[in-house]
């Protein structure tokens, strides 16, 4: 029974791991809101849950527990523990638990599953290392081909996939090129010849087993050389600074460590692909010479959509400010977006990406500092330093044919994390590399121990890990395997139940978004109600449903409401009741969203906009709108758009003094904000201060691009002011427009939004500072 269980367990693990790895590289589906990460995470969760249950079942049948201990065990457990504590202490616990805006990576759920995944790998890889990595290299080759086909504009999938030049099956170009960068040492070391050296290992795959001797060596060399060319081309054409540095590190370390002789003929297999990659990259950088010359490679490189990444200085200031306020446990997993809106420096508004809200830091270390605090950063740094310590020994004395390339791959993994935040696919492959490295060292030494201890001695033994070494221990403690089986089975059922519910909810949410795209409001409403019932903790479902409710009510009012031709309209009593119910539901859903995620500026902004849009049918709606905008500003104090919206609300009720104050706030936060100056000019004009209005209008003209259509409108407006002639439409600033059918002041008040707040959340005025006095990195 034991032998049968172990045989089938190894087979199941091997097949399941292959499925997971290929899902990581290639799986995407149009059935979830996020086409890429959500399907991959579902497969990862399924793999981890099933294998954890089967592993504990094997322990129970064998009546012993065999554990592989590695130097990374304690830091990983500490990291997961910090994430749990940080989630419970977070002001947005549901976001920390499940992710922000349907992005599961970075949440507590993803952290726990990734840690479990690592321990499953270290305890089950053993003899699978070489086979798995050969398959992974072939998968990397296929991934490169698909990515390059998209780069060169070849459409091989139906819409909506493969339509953009930067399409790649992992989801983003960074994930693809980062994975390829940490795989680079494997073919490179095999070509150059490891000092630990069993030679090439392509013969382990069934398709190459019939090739023997010199033919196998030549075939392996050609395959590895082709992989270098393919990986290098993909990294350099579609990569990011972090993956360029990671790939360069992998190549340089491999060459420095092995120091191949110039007389080594195998060096040709390395030099040729590297030369071709450098040549191709050079051609992409050279513009066409002459008016008739063309360089398609240059044009493709210029048109390729590059990722927008938060810069280091801003990320440093945000993370250190978050650490200052929550030094130990941070703000919670998946909450970097809230840290960014709350702590970004004022000079960020001069950045060309000022209107983007970033949900990840410049790199993984700064992101962890802000979200998991000092203890979380300590765990991550311990993880990196322990691996570097172990890898340094391997670089000088490799223990197996895989240990050297895996050591370089692991170092590349941590270097890339220093220049970019992690992603789910990158972490899955990265953890596989780290686990395989320690397992390969263990397999070479054959370090096994059998322990017969009580519970306390077992815990103390497992807590002691040798730096730079891994070991395998067999533990026999009465009833412990059975207890672990019950716990693992219970946790797996719990995880599968809620994962199934939340995945189904996400499916309904995706259907709702598709219904909105085809303008089917009723279907969108029904799908969002279904999604919310399955997952009542997702604030994005609430805000989407709030907006759909309002859109349905507004559509009824537009279709059957009073018009110039029919002042009475054609609204029935049922229509009026439907409008009332839909608007009440809209406000209630938006309010619930702010309760679920009170730090979300987006939620407060949506609530404020809804209040403003129903001002004609709800008493005190504008008061609630101003209060909600104020709370949004408290979460995003340096956002000029929010100040502009508040100014527009005050302008709509003809409170020109406060409108001017908030328009001034907007331009003080962003001195080159043309829209802010235009709104300010209109408010000054209507207040009667024409001279100041002309000054603001001149600033608008100086800021607007002379080749744009807006420039002529701004110039006409300025001329009208100078001639003291009433300007053409729009007669009110854009921020104050009231086009909704439910904003008419003469409509009956049918929606009850409650009593107005005793004190509106009004932010203080903004002076124009020269810079933000925030922490700055030391040289």
UniProtKB/TrEMBL annotation:
Gene Ontology CC terms: membrane
Keyword Metal-binding in annotation: no
All residue ranges annotated as the O-antigen ligase-related domain in the record: 226-381
SUPFAM superfamilies per record: TPR-like
SMART domains the UniProt entry points to: TPR
Main location: membrane
Region of interest called Disordered, as start-end residue ranges on this chain: 722-779
Membrane-spanning ranges: 12-29, 41-60, 72-92, 104-121, 133-152, 172-193, 214-235, 241-258, 267-286, 365-388, 400-419, 425-443, 479-499
TPR repeats (start-end): 640-673
PROSITE patterns: TPR
Keywords attached to this entry: Membrane, TPR repeat, Transmembrane, Transmembrane helix
Keyword Transmembrane: yes
Domain of life where this protein originates: Bacteria
Membrane topology listed for this record: Multi-pass membrane protein
Compartments where located: Membrane
Protein name, entry field: O-antigen ligase-related domain-containing protein
Organism: Candidatus Daviesbacteria bacterium RIFCSPLOWO2_01_FULL_39_12
């Amino acid at each position: 029974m034991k032998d049968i269980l172990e045989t089938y367990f190894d087979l199941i693990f091997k097949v399941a791991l292959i499925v997971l790895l290929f899902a990581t590289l290639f799986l995407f589906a149009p059935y979830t809101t996020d086409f890429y990460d959500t399907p991959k995470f579902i497969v990862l969760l399924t793999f981890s849950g099933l294998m954890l249950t089967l592993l504990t079942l094997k322990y129970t049948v064998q009546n012993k527990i065999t554990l592989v201990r590695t130097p990374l065990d304690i830091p990983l457990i500490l990291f997961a523990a910090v994430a749990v504590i940080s989630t419970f202490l977070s002001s947005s616990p549901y976001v920390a638990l499940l992710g922000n805006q349907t992005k599961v990576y970075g949440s507590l759920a993803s952290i726990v599953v990734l840690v479990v995944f690592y321990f499953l790998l270290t305890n089950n890889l053993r003899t699978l290392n070489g086979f798995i990595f050969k398959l992974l290299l072939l998968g990397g080759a296929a991934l490169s081909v698909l990515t390059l086909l998209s780069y060169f504009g070849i459409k091989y999938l139906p819409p909506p996939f493969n339509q953009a030049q930067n399409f790649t099956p992992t989801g983003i170009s960074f994930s693809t090129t980062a994975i390829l960068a940490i795989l680079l040492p494997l073919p490179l070391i095999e070509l150059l010849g490891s000092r630990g050296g069993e030679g090439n290992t392509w013969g382990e795959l069934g398709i190459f087993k019939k090739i023997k001797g010199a033919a196998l060596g030549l075939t392996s060399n050609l395959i590895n050389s082709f992989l270098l060319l393919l990986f290098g081309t993909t990294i350099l054409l579609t990569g990011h600074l972090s993956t360029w540095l990671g790939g360069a590190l992998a190549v340089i370390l491999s060459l420095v460590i092995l120091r191949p002789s110039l007389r080594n003929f195998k060096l040709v297999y390395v030099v040729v692909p590297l030369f071709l990659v450098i040549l191709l990259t050079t051609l992409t950088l050279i513009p066409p010479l002459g008016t008739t010359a063309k360089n398609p490679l240059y044009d493709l490189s210029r048109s390729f959509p590059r990722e927008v990444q938060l810069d280091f200085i801003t990320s440093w200031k945000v993370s250190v400010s978050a650490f200052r306020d929550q030094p130990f446990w941070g703000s919670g997993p998946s909450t970097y977006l809230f840290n960014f809106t709350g702590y970004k420096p004022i000079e960020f508004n001069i950045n060309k990406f000022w209107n983007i809200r970033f949900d990840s830091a410049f790199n993984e270390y700064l992101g962890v500092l802000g979200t998991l605090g000092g203890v979380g950063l300590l765990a991550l740094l311990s993880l990196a330093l322990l691996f570097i310590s172990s890898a340094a020994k391997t670089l000088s004395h490799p223990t197996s044919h895989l240990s050297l390339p895996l050591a370089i791959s692991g170092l590349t993994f941590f270097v890339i994390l220093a220049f970019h935040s992690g992603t789910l696919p990158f972490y899955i492959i990265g953890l596989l590399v780290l686990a395989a490295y320690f397992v390969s060292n263990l397999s070479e030494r054959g370090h096994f121990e059998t322990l017969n201890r009580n519970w306390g001695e077992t815990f103390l033994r497992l807590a002691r890990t040798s730096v730079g070494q891994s070991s395998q221990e067999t533990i026999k403690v009465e009833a412990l395997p059975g207890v672990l089986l019950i716990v693992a089975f219970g946790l797996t059922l719990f995880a599968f139940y809620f994962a199934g519910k939340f995945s189904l909810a996400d499916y309904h949410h995706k259907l709702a978004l598709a219904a909105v795209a085809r303008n089917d409001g009723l279907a969108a409403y029904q799908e969002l109600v279904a999604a919310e019932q399955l997952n009542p903790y997702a604030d994005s479902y609430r805000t989407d449903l709030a907006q759909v409710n309002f859109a349905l009510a507004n559509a009824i009012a537009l279709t059957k409401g009073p018009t110039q031709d029919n002042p009475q309209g054609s609204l029935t009593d049922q229509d009026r009741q439907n409008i009332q119910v839909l608007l009440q539901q809209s406000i209630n859903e938006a309010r619930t969203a702010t309760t679920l995620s009170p730090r979300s500026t987006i939620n407060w902004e949506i609530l404020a906009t809804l209040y403003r849009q129903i001002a004609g049918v709800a008493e005190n709606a504008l008061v609630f709108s101003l209060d909600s905008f104020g709370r949004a500003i408290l979460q995003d104090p340096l956002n000029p758009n929010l100040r502009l919206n508040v100014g527009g609300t005050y302008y709509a009720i003809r409170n020109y003094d406060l409108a001017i104050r908030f328009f001034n706030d907007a331009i003080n936060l962003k001195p080159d904000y043309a829209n802010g100056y235009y709104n300010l000019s209109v408010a000054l004009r209507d207040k009667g201060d024409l001279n100041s209005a002309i000054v603001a209008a001149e600033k608008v003209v100086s800021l607007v691009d002379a080749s744009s259509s807006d420039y002529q409108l701004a110039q006409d407006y300025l001329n009208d002011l100078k001639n003291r002639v009433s300007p053409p439409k729009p007669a009110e600033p854009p921020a104050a427009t009231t086009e909704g059918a439910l904003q008419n002041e003469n409509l009956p008040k049918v929606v009850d939004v409650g009593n107005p707040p005793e004190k509106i959340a009004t932010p203080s005025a903004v002076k124009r500072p020269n810079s933000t006095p925030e922490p700055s990195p030391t040289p």
